[in-house]
Structures are given as structure tokens and as C-alpha cells.
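call fold(seq) -> C-alpha cells
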Amino acid sequence: MPRKTGKQSALFYLALLSTAVSAAPGFDAGKRTINLHEAVTRTIEQNPDLHTFDYQLKAQQGHALQAGLAPSPELSFELEDVLGTGDNRGVDSAQATLSISWVVERGVRQRHINAARAGSSLLTVEADVRQLDAAAETARRYLVSLAYQAREVNADKAVQIAQETIRSVAKRVKAGKTPKAELSRAQAELARRKLEREDIDHERVSANRRLAAQWGEVTPAFARVEGNINGTLQIASFETLKSRLQQNPEFTRLSSERLLKKAELQLALAKERPSWRLNAGVRHSNSSNDQAFVAGITIPFGERTRNPGRIAAARANLAKTDKQESAMRIHIETTLYVIYEKLQHSLHVIDTLRGEIIPPLEQALTETLRAYNLGRYSYLEWRTVQTEVLDAHNALIEASIDARHNMIEIERLTGVRLTEPTAAGGSL
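ret:
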């Protein structure tokens, strides 16, 4: 099976990240929205950092081209027995030799080619990894924007509750059943909730700008992102995910690096055998007007022609890649376990909030409002229940954000899609 190109790999990873991204209800149709697929596609095609890496690939391709070129032959001319004394006066006894020489590389050039190609393969894999990293970072920033949109919904609910509170308190004040101070407190609470809503809006705009920067856009061309952060999630077991760690692109990078180090070792070994130089030519003698063929060979000898230092360094670098793979495997597996445990905890928090905390609190809020209107509960008791309900909804949003953030990190580690769409609306 042929290896995916960098863009194909990143878009494949995009398919893993965009697990059932769906449009959340209530978006203003008149506003420009963007989905995760579009965001990651733009990142892969337009990210400025990825574009600068293209020049490194082109430079390495130049090295590979240069490695395939043989050393140029050398043309030499020698003139002997001239401008001397006796028979060698003038140029009558001159001997002229015209020769050409070339290097016999003895396999060194092929080793250069192999090393250059291995270097190109490593850079190609590095480009793939960078694209995957850029895709993951885009998913993280996308999640931040989506999170602020979810927080806006809760903030709007808090403003609505504060407005309803003012209306209920105002009726009791007018009837003389509640001190006017309670109405002032309710009005102050509404102002505070509006400030919180405004702060979230500013943060959302900034988050959108950071997201757009992933594809080099200074001013976002969108106002909102699509997605439902409250969808039900079901994930694979830890053992299943652990078995998929080999798909982590870091292992592919190490494999390519090992090939490079092996090629560098072979090159160092080839250079231990010094190159020979052959020459051949024609000699002309003025005194006899004769010509003769001449040839020669130059063979370096002695310890100076050896390459022990580079060979030792190349062997050490090759051995290092094996140790790095072992260390990386331990690190990645440990990281997977820690993130998986965090994800499990977030899912447990979500289930508890949805099933055991929010429903009874909302029921308590309805009953407390009824009791307040009947004069059985104080304003403070009513406000306490309101705060508990709002806090529970906020906690649900934060737990959902944490769960999806951990999903992104696990998918980045394993390269495997974790979840499937559900009837509840899917997930980021």
C-alpha cells in the first residue's frame, strides 16, 4: 500500500477529528459560518509555517540531485625538459604530456545518493507530521471557538433568568410584600450577568481570530463555527487504543530517521576505502618527434585515509534511534493512559450532571420560584437555587469541552477515530 502524501495524511486525520460535526441549532443563517473540515483544509493549503517548510524540502531535493553527480574529470598539461642548459636549452628537447584523470569512487557516490534520498524521505515524513500537528492545532482552536459559543448559550440563559427575577421581585415590591432593596439587588445581578455575556462575546471573537490565523487570515471571514458540543460520546477501550499506537506518525518519523542513520553509516564505511585516481594521456617528444601513451594510478595509503571517527559516530547515531523508539513508545503509551483516564472522568462528570444533578436542580428552581411568589421563601433562597442551576449547566459545558479536548489528543496519538455519530447529535 503506497504511503499517503502529506496533504492526504492530514486530510485523513481530519476525518478522524471531525467525528460527526453537525450544525448546532439556533445559528443565525445570515452570518457566515465555517465547519471543521473547511478549517483544516484551509490550514493544510494555506498555513504560513507549512509553506516555509516547503523550502527545506526543495533544498534537500537539491542535495539529492547534487549527490548523484559524479566528480568532473580533470584535464592536465605538462611540459618538461625546456629552458634548461645543454641539450635542454630552448624547447628543442621538450616533452609535452596531455592527460585526463578521473576519480574511481568505489561505491561512495551511491552511498551519497542513498543518504540524500533517506534525508529526503525523512523530511517528507517530517512534513506529514507537521501537517498533522497543524490539523490538530486547528481542531483545538476550533474547539475553543465552539466552547465560547456554548458558554454564550448559558450566559444568555443567565441573563434571561435575571430578567425574569426582576419582573417577579418588582411585582412583590409593588404589592408591598418585599423590600425595595431586593429589586435593587436583582437589577445589579442583571447588570453583572450582561457583563459576563459581553466578556464571553469578546473572547469568542478573539478565539475566531486565532483560528483564522491557522490559515494566514488576519480578519476572519466567518462569525461562527458549526458543531454540537453536547452530543453523546462513546469511545473504544484503552487496550484497543493501545493496540493502535503504532499508527502514531512519530514512529514513522523514527523509522525514516533510522534509514537515514543507516545510510550515513554505509557512507562512512564506504569512505573508509579511499578513492583511487586514474589518469591517461599522450606524450610528445620534440627531439625525436615521437608520441607515446602514458597512464597512471594514484592510491592513497596510511592511517590518514581511514575514517574511524565518522564510522563510530554513525554507529552511535544509528543505535540512538533504537533507544529513542523504545523511550518514545513508553512516553506515548503513558500519555495515552493519562489522557484516557481524564476522558473517562469527564464522561462520568457529564453523565452525573445530566442524570443526577441538573434535573433535580431545575425542579427545585421551579418549586422555589412558586414558593417565593407565595412568600414562603426569601429572595436569597431563590437566588441560591438559581446560582446552583447555572453553575451546573456551566459545569456540563466545561466537562464537555474537556472530553472533546482529550478526544483530539487521543486521536492525535493513535491516528484512529474514537467515536461514531449518535442520535443525540454527534460531537466535535
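Strands lie at 33-34, 74-80, 95-104, 224-225, 276-285, 290-298.
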